[in-house]
Amino acid sequence: MKRRTARLIRVFRSPLDRTKGRLVGPGINLPCALGRSGPGHGKREGDGRTPIGRFKVLAALYRPDRMRRPATILPLAPIRPDLGWSDDPRDRRYNRPVDLPAACGHERMWRDDALYDLVLDLSYNRGPIVPGRGSAIFLHSARPGFLPTEGCVAVDRRRIAALVERIGPGTRIEIVG
HSE (CB half, 13 Å, CA atoms) of 73? Predict the structure, then answer.
């Protein structure tokens, strides 16, 4: 049986709370958390804004010690304890994976909480990479109560594996204002 993936999934901001929204697509309707500054244009490193736009999903990363390999046709890689993501605009590897320890500012991908147990790498600021325009924009698991993210989109951790099954290389995630 051929696996079906969604072509387009949209993220809509709540009219009542800029840090919350809904992720909507064919057979998909999930609450989500957004950045602490809500969605917007002109994203800058550290501003807490979720960037508005349409993004390709580049790959999925997962914690093999906490979950089995997700069922997806996306490029997939395990998260290692020494994996980081450069968020330092002065670093030549800005907005890309880095091996830890690293002298640059970075996001640690191997976390004590469950937020990054399964992560989708959205293609924000990836072609070309503009230093300072924002890094590490992912779709990942939400904190309890859907507390705001640093700019990512986050869904219930019990639903993310099923969501990833519906996302393929042709899927676009559109974040609307």
Answer: 11
